[in-house]
C-alpha cells in the first residue's frame, strides 16, 4: 500500500505538483492529427495535465497549442478566428501565432508597440504517427522527438485512437501493467474458437510475475505453466516511464504469429480524468487488416465504442453499467461486459476518481505495480532536485514486447533479448538491479 501523501503525490498532476512537473519533461500525446484536418480550420479545446489550452493549425499548416485565455481580458481563444497565420481573439482582435507572439493588436493606436510586449503561453509541437505531440516542460530540457517505432511505420501498418477514462491516470496505468488480471477480467468461458493466449492463460491462473528494472522503467513478464511440464508461456512487456506500456499481441486464432505489437499511454487530462491512447502496429512487411487498425472488439473502436464527436467519450460508462449482460456473464465471458478495454474501464473507473491506496492489500503478483510506483515517486524527486527522469533517451524507441512458449529451464529475458530490445543499443549491463 501507499501512504496518503505518496498517493497524493502520484495522483496530482497539475502545474507545480511533483508528478506534474516530472510529466512535463516528456513529449505528451495531445491529439490525433485529423482533429485539425487542414490549415485555418476551426480551433479545438484541449486539456492536458490540468491546463486549459486551445489547439489550431495555422495557414502554413503548423500546429499551435496555446493558453485558452487571451492575456487581454481573459476571453476564450476557442472562439477565435483562425486566419492569416494566427489565432485572433474575437473580443478585441488581438492575434497570436503558434509561438504565442502577439502579431496584431488592432484595438491599440497604430503607433503603439504594446503588442511587442505581450506573449501568450505556448508549447512546442511535433507531428508523427498520426498524433500531435506537445512538450510542456522547460525549453532547455526538451528531449528527443518521440520517434517510437509505432510512429515510424507506414500508416497502413498502424492503428491509433484514444478514449476518455473517468478516473485518475494511475488507475489506468496500474490496470494496464497488471498482467494477472487477464486470467479473470478478460477470460472467455467458451472453449472453442478462442485465441491461443486464452488457452495458455486458462492453464495457470496464478502467473509468476518477474520485473527487471531498466534505465527507462522496466521489462517484466507474466509466466504461466503449460500442460506440458517442460514448457511455460511467457508474456513479456515494457513499462516506459511515465505512462507507456508495450504489450505483446502476436498470437492469433491459428496460423503463424504476426509481427505485431501494441500498447497504451495513460495521459492525465486532470486529476480525475485520463485520456487513454491505444496503438497497434505491424513491424513486418504485412500491413494491419482494417479490423486491426480499427481495433475491433477491443472496446476502443472509434464511432462504435468511442463517441469521437463528443470528446472521445466511451459509450459504455457507469451510467449504463458498461452494458453488462448477466446472461453473457453466466455463460460466455467472465464479466458479461463487451470489449476488452471496456472491461478495464469498468473496474478502474469504479474504484473512485482517485483510488485510496492506503487500504490495499497487495500480493506477490503485484510486483509490476509496486515497482512502477517506486519508479514514478523516484522520478518526481529526481526532477525536483534538478535531474532528469527515466525514459528520455532514444533507446526506448526500439523496444518491442513479445509472447512465446519457452522451455521451463530457459530464462525468459535471455531467450527473448534480441526481440525485446531489437535495434536498441543495450547490453545486459544497462540493468540497474
| Major sheet details | 8 strands, antiparallel
Radius of gyration, taken over Cα atoms and rounded to an integer in Å: 23 Å
Taken together, the total number of domains comes to: 2
**Any idea what the CATH superfamily of the largest domain is called?**
Naphthalene 1,2-dioxygenase Alpha Subunit, Chain A, domain 1
CATH topology call of the largest domain:
Naphthalene 1,2-dioxygenase Alpha Subunit, Chain A, domain 1
Mean pLDDT: 92
Low-confidence residue ranges = none
Strand content: 25-35%
- CATH class of the largest domain, named Alpha Beta
Distance between the termini: 22 Å
What fraction, in percent, of the residue positions are helical?
10-25%
Molecular shape: globular
What is the CATH architecture assignment of the largest domain? Answer: Alpha-Beta Complex
Number of helices: 10
The total strand number stands at 21
Structural class: alpha+beta
Amino acid at each position: 500500500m501507499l501512504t496518503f501523501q505518496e498517493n497524493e503525490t502520484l495522483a496530482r498532476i497539475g502545474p507545480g505538483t511533483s508528478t506534474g512537473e516530472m510529466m512535463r519533461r516528456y513529449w505528451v500525446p495531445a491529439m490525433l492529427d485529423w482533429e485539425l484536418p487542414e490549415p485555418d480550420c476551426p480551433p479545438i479545446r484541449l486539456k492536458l495535465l490540468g491546463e486549459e489550452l486551445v489547439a489550431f493549425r495555422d495557414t502554413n499548416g503548423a500546429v499551435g497549442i496555446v493558453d485558452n485565455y487571451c492575456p487581454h481580458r481573459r476571453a476564450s481563444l476557442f472562439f477565435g478566428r483562425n486566419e492569416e497565420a494566427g489565432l485572433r481573439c474575437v473580443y478585441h482582435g488581438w492575434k497570436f501565432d503558434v509561438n504565442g507572439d502577439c502579431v496584431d493588436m488592432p484595438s491599440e493606436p497604430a503607433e503603439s508597440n504594446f503588442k511587442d510586449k505581450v506573449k501568450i503561453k505556448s508549447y512546442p509541437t511535433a507531428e508523427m504517427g498520426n498524433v500531435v505531440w506537445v512538450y510542456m516542460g522547460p525549453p532547455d530540457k526538451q528531449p528527443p522527438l518521440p520517434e517510437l517505432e509505432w510512429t515510424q511505420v507506414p500508416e497502413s501498418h498502424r492503428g491509433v485512437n484514444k478514449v476518455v477514462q473517468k478516473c485518475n491516470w494511475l488507475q489506468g496505468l496500474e490496470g494496464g501493467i497488471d498482467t494477472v488480471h487477464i486470467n479473470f477480467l478478460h477470460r472467455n468461458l467458451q472453449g472453442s474458437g478462442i485465441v491461443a493466449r486464452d488457452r495458455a492463460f486458462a492453464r495457470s491462473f496464478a502467473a509468476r510475475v518477474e520485473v527487471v528494472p531498466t534505465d527507462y522503467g522496466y521489462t517484466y513478464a507474466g509466466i504461466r505453466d503449460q500442460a506440458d511440464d517442460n514448457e511455460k508461456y511467457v508474456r513479456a512487456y515494457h513499462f516506459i516511464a511515465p505512462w507507456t506500456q508495450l504489450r505483446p499481441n502476436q498470437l492469433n486464432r491459428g496460423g503463424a504469429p504476426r509481427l505485431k505489437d501494441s500498447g497504451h499511454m495513460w495521459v492525465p487530462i486532470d486529476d480525475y480524468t485520463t485520456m487513454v491512447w491505444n496503438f497497434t502496429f505491424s513491424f513486418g512487411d504485412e500491413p494491419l487488416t482494417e479490423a486491426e487498425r480499427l481495433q475491433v472488439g477491443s472496446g476502443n473502436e472509434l464511432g462504435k465504442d468511442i463517441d469521437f464527436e463528443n470528446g472521445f467519450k466511451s459509450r459504455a460508462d457507469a451510467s449504463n453499467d458498461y452494458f453488462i449482460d448477466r446472461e453473457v456473464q453466466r455463460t460466455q465471458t467472465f464479466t458479461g461486459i463487451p470489449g476488452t478495454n471496456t472491461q478495464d474501464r469498468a473496474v478502474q473507473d469504479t474504484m473512485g476518481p482517485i483510488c485510496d491506496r492506503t487500504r490495499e492489500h497487495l500480493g506477490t503478483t503485484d510486483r509490476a505495480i509496486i515497482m512502477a510506483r517506486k519508479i514514478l515517486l523516484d522520478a518526481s524527486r529526481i526532477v525536483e532536485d534538478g535531474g532528469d527522469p527515466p525514459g528520455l533517451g532514444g533507446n526506448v524507441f526500439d523496444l518491442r514486447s513479445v509472447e512465446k512458449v519457452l522451455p521451463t529451464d530457459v530464462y525468459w529475458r535471455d531467450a527473448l533479448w534480441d526481440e525485446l530490445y531489437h535495434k536498441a543499443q543495450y547490453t545486459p549491463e544497462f540493468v540497474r538491479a
